[in-house]
């Protein structure tokens, strides 16, 4: 677009509503369409820009705690714990440090769950915020695309009407397949 358009006029022409009656997202998109500017930063960039150190740490903990590597490694540690405390240490002449029913192991697992669960929930909340930013961004892109298509359609119709009027004034025959206005 070579010149800046009026967003209020675009709202009336393209959407058939007053600019003040539109939602904030629609007004922002109309201003961008009128100015001929791009949509802005990517949704992932916006989400990363709003992330605190705690958010990033929660994402890392959730990524590790929710991986097959963690599950397999943790299963191996549990098996070693149980085997050592079920009699392997007694065969070597040492007393088991957490004999059956593995009370210390239960305590450690409970503490791990108590710490890990809220961290994973924080990560899920951050992902939900990221999804909302992405949805808002997608909505803006779709709305802008629809407005641009409507604007171009109106412009093409205006040019077609002007061409038909010129042909009428010049007395030339209409182009086959083109409707007369």
Topology:
Blueprint: H1 7-15, H2 24-35, H3 43-49, H4 53-65, H5 68-91, H6 103-170
Helix pairs in contact: 1-2, 1-6, 2-6, 3-6, 4-6
**Content of β-strand:** under 5%
Q: What integer is the average pLDDT?
A: 84
Shape: rod-shaped
Radius of gyration: 33 Å
Number of helices: 6
Largest sheet: none
Report the span from N to C terminus.
Answer: 28 Å
User: From the helix content, strand content and strand pairing, which structural class follows?
Assistant: mainly alpha
Secondary-structure element order, as H and E? HHHHHH
Total strands: the figure is 0
Low-confidence stretches: none
Helix fraction bin: over 70%
Structural commentary:
73% of the residues lie in helices and 0% in strands. It starts with 6 loop residues before the first helix and ends in an 11-residue tail after the last helix. It has helices spanning 7-15, 24-35, 43-49, 53-65, 68-91, 103-170. It is built from six helices and no strands. It has 181 residues and is mainly α. The protein has a domain at 53-140.
Structure described in brief:
It contains six helices and no strands. It has helices at 7-15, 24-35, 43-49, 53-65, 68-91, 103-170.
Task: Considering the chains and any ligands shown, give keywords for the structure.
single chain, 181 residues, mainly alpha, 6 helices
């Amino acid at each position: 677009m070579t010149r800046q358009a009026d967003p209020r006029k675009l709202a009336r022409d393209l959407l058939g509503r007053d600019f003040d009656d539109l939602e904030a997202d629609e007004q922002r998109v109309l201003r961008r369409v009128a100015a001929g500017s791009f949509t802005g930063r990517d949704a992932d960039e916006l989400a990363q820009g709003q992330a605190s150190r705690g958010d990033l740490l929660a994402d890392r903990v959730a990524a590790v705690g929710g991986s097959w590597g963690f599950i397999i490694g943790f299963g191996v540690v549990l098996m070693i714990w149980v085997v050592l405390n079920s009699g392997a240490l007694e065969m070597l002449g040492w007393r088991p440090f957490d004999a059956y029913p593995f009370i210390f192991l239960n305590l450690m697992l409970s503490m791990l769950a108590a710490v890990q669960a809220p961290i994973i929930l924080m990560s899920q909340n951050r992902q939900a915020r990221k999804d909302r930013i992405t949805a808002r961004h997608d909505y803006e892109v779709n709305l802008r695309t629809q407005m641009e298509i409507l604007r171009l359609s109106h412009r093409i119709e205006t040019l077609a009407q002007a061409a038909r009027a010129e042909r009428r004034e010049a007395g030339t025959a209409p182009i086959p397949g083109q409707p007369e206005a």
